[in-house]
Write a structure and sequence with these properties.
The protein has one helix and ten strands, in the order ββββββββαββ. By secondary structure, the chain is mainly beta.
Length: 123
């Protein structure tokens, strides 16, 4: 699982806003239950909930990163991407076309299914 340190900016019935670096994302409101705005949190995102898209694609709600490496797993490929701040995340793609579509060293956008992400206190 990917563990991403972040800050809970706000939480209301419309959603929970977190900040990761300079990026702000809105999660389902229930994800912030019991958490206080302003607190340090950790966002947990499963690799299969991350998808690579072209770098400037509007669907890249999780920013852009450089593809580090691919690990072929038979039925899927794990793609490791590195953000400019040094963070490394793992995205899982069915099949093996991600190796050709997003070669190591290229920039890619990252789309996260935030409905399946979970937020926990940092400590």
């Amino acid at each position: 699982i990917n563990r991403v340190p972040c800050k809970l900016v706000s939480a209301d019935p419309g959603g929970a806003m977190v900040e990761i670096g300079g990026m702000r994302l809105v999660l389902p409101a229930a994800r912030a239950a019991g958490l206080t705005a302003g607190s340090a949190t950790v966002l947990f995102v499963r690799p299969e909930e991350l998808t690579l898209v072209p770098e400037r694609d509007a669907a890249a709600n999780f920013g852009a990163a450089t593809v580090d490496t691919h690990v072929y797993q038979g039925t899927h490929v794990d793609v490791y991407v590195r953000y400019d701040d040094g963070r490394v995340l793992r995205a899982r793609h069915a099949g093996y076309d991600a190796i050709e579509r997003f070669p190591a060293g290229t920039r890619a956008g990252v789309r996260a299914n935030l409905d399946q992400a979970f937020l926990f206190p940092a400590s």
